[in-house]
Amino acid sequence: MKYLIGIDIGTSGTKSVLFDTDGKVVASALKEYPLYQPKNGWAEQDPADWWNAVCETLAEITKKADGEIAGVGLSGQMHGLVMLDESGEVLRKSIIWCDGRTSEECTLIEDIIGRERFIELNGNPALPGFTASKIMWVKRHEPDVYAKCKHILLPKDYIRYKLTGEFATEVSDASGMQLMDIANRCWSEEICEKLGIDMSLLGKMHESPEVTGYITDEASVLTGLKTGIPVAGGAGDNAAAAIGTGVCSDGKAFTTIGTSGVVFVHTDKMAVDPKGRVHTLCCAVPGAWHVMGCIQAAGLSLNWFRNNLAKDLSYKEIDAAAESVAPGCDGLIYLPYLMGERTPILDTNARGTFFGLSAMHTREHMARAVIEGVSYALYSCLDVLGEMNVKLADMALCGGGAKSKLWQSILADMYMLPVKTPIASEGPALGVAILAGVAAGVYKSVEEGCARTVAFNPEINGDKAMNETYMKYYDLYKSLYPALKDSFAKLNKIR
Description:
single chain; alpha/beta; Nucleotidyltransferase, domain 5; five-stranded mixed β-sheet; 20% strand
């Protein structure tokens, strides 16, 4: 029997999963590690913690394989900056995706290149969470570190180096560095030259299902993997989750409700929003892209509600409480801006709001308003995609929110699309295991790998009458942020 391994290097921990070639989980192991915050708004992790977690989890799951491990795939948190010296040693802790220190560098990048040209080349405006601004920050604030740097890698690509000795990356994760020519799926000479970043520091570019290296003797001893097993390019976390939910052809899409919320659509034709409201990146299927909207506080909003207003209830009980209230919550609307907002408003000053609150409203009303408000925010991502003429024909739902039938039903009513949930919950790990299977020749294509391994629960269809109700409230929801924008900015200055 053949097996495939998917490794997901996340923010809270690394999960390694052993699959059979039909996508069934044979063994799984998780190892957590810390997040370091040396200053308010900063976020760093030690790459040694990732590597130790990979070694520990692989050593555990490889014992469960009674046949050949055909390939390994890598996924993980995107945008993190890993800097190595000429000996391949880490120079400083990795500045990771949720670090917010680089606002000045983002302004500098757009001043140097021009905002419109920068979006045209890399599909996105300069963003603090992405990698290019982190590189510029180190250049400006830690020049001694930058002078010693000989290799720049992303988190999962550092693990690739430790497993194979290769300095390499792949298009889906690399396109989140903001150093790529997204249309041509290669490093951008124009961006790198204008920012003064030597392209020799960057890893060799691959497509996601390509072989990027092989397990070394040293890595074999530490992980239990046999020397010579191929390691695929893999994918960034969202692109990997797409493959793990079967989103691998034009018009297929998924919504994730985790701490944040994502609407992700696969497209065979590159589409870029000139206003920079959504992200356009290369996807894990060769020759294709994805367009992605992201909201900051999806599941986080429900978590906030539970922690502060419903500590006595489980999430299942909150679902039942919300279901007892009619759609529209008797005129109560929630804006889920607890952490500012990205798509579509791009405003760090925005804050959470209950609009229309009256004496008649109960905790049950507020629970449903939170779920509906997050759903309106996710639907607003589809509004932008519609402006871009991105096709949308199929929707999967994953993340913690996928456990809620109510949430699934509300999204189906708003989207007016069938919404389905995958049977397997391994998402990114399964996605990169599929990519590893393509690299190893187990599957002929990504599409074949998805068809063989990804299955779904029965879908929920949207109700037209419900949709008409929600769209009336959605029109009002859309009008609230423009009316409050200046007030949010004033509030931020006062506090």
